[in-house]
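From the shared-data thread, chain only:
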Amino acid sequence: MGIEGRDKAKALEAGALAVSGQLGKAVQRLRKANNLSLSELSEQSGVAKSIISQIERNETNPTLATIWRLAQALDVSIEGVLRVSEDEPFLEKASRGDTPILVSDDGKCHLSIIGWIKTVEWLQWYGFSAEPGGVLASEPHQRGSVECLSVTDGELEVEVGGMAEHAKAGETLRYRCDRPHVIRNRTEKPAAAMMVCILKAAVME
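Structure, as tokens:
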């Protein structure tokens, strides 16, 4: 039996409030997960800060256009915003074609950018490979930055601040990368590693 008249209006209102309640929690959780303030999310989405605040407090029922703008800024689908909850997993897949590759000046080193674009300003990670004799020279990152290079195959050397150290498979080198630094493969075999760069680490004096 269908719902008509006032009963139908009440049912729609109740459904809208339920969705709004879920949306508010989801938006707030996703915003915090992306380390965004209300002002930053407002700037990225084009939705007024006051409106976002009302959504998070479940004080308004946003339009589809507003939800779409927030979803774009939070890098999720509209369905993802509406369905996500604290207990649901987050899972996405990037294909090989979606992974940018950087090549060193000598053409012998490759960096696969596998980090998430949302964290690029403070956390970056890469798949690194170097052919025999390969050299990757990098300019300084922002002050206080630290890089971690975990060798998965072969052997690599890192030089920074006049110091040099080698690491074999299973070993990790950590070093300040807020000064010129170089990664080399001095061996006659290919080498590979996982590289993580923390751009907002505490400054080490």
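The mean pLDDT is 81.
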